[in-house]
């Protein structure tokens, strides 16, 4: 530099961009003047780079600094996994010279090769660890996981890619990625909805995006579902790219049936929006249903319920997700900022066969109606149409029949299908046709004639309901109907007693004979019409209707009181 300088009065030289700075230059100066110092894993990277910068090659002196550092790297560092990791960590701040001399690439390859070798030669140790404690197994198999977490994210990515090429176990790599994320992202705090503006720097965003990209490019499928949800929340916090979020959502959708309700309750970071990130859950559910369609295309019938499909893993997964989503809907329903369109979109996304009973869905909708009293009547009708009244249990039907928040059309549908179930119970399984009240599209009642081969009204039979659940429900309804018939019979006996009392009050044998004849006629009428008794008084023909109208004056108040008492006893857990 002095020779090349054209200034005859040169008194000062300025060395620009010296790799390693004053620390590295001082070591090089000591080497030139013969001062003793030791080459170690902590300074070999600085010495190699500054020697390259100062052109300390064999052309000027034998065994110059470049030769000395290369010898140490090849004989000491690159043959050992620990030392290669330490040197690679010391390469920070030495760019671009450290890349030009190939030190990073050599350390990365040495780490991957040594890890692969140790994995092969330690098979016996791994087998011994499998029968030991979990802590010992972790120490045996993944002892280098914590050391990898000290690497810079770009160096870490290159190490993981090299490990995959050299055949390192995917389980070990997955554990390493999980530990790296927990170590490098533990300082990121949750951002609240009311916070605005940038929250974290580009470094943390780069870490999140790099780790997610590693899962995709290296095809790592051994990470846990809780880790995926954690990465998804972190991607939302640091405002990662949309591609990264979609990748995590897709992986979660592949195993959504194993998720918990707490996993889905992702806080929203958008201002003036709902408290929970409903859009993200919607996309995850879409990915899950796409996986089900691909896995079970040949297992389920077009309606989604086949005898073989009931036993398939896909159908079991759909039922689990159906229960999970009902719980999620109930959790987000009280949010006053949750829009009706988003709430309905989540409900409509699941197929009908995902719910054997609609009690959970009814509960969620009831909570939403209670938390959003400003909904219009048409919006309430549209929301309540998503409930299949035929899938409501007896408790849910009783609650819905007394729910003031439901549209009247919904209440009518509930009562109508309750009537059909009662008539189905009376039919006893014989074939035939049933004439009764029908339900129009607007919820109004009309006369309808329904036939089925089993004697059960066809509108009451869901093609997607398994036989076992139907038998249990019918058994429960039969028990309830017996109790109702007992109550009704008690009322009839009370009415008969009143008729006898009125006959005695008239006095005389003629009155007694007249009362006795009325009692015998009543008992005969009761024996003939016992099979036609229903909860809503449907059936019996025109003559029975005339008799009921004639007698309604004397016992309408008593029947009303009895029905009011029975309705008062009905309770449900949703109030």
TrEMBL record:
Q: What are the boundaries of the region Disordered?
A: 499-518, 537-575
Does this UniProt record's set of keywords contain S-adenosyl-L-methionine?
no
Keyword Transcription carried by entry: no
Which residues are in coiled coils? 468-495
Q: Where is the composition biased (Basic residues)?
A: 564-575
The residue ranges of the NPH3 domain are 142-421
Keyword line:
Coiled coil, Ubl conjugation pathway
What processes does the entry annotate via GO biological process terms? protein ubiquitination
- Pfam families listed in its UniProt record: NPH3
Family membership noted in the UniProt record: Belongs to the NPH3 family.
| Protein name, UniProt field | NPH3 domain-containing protein
**Native source species:** Sorghum bicolor
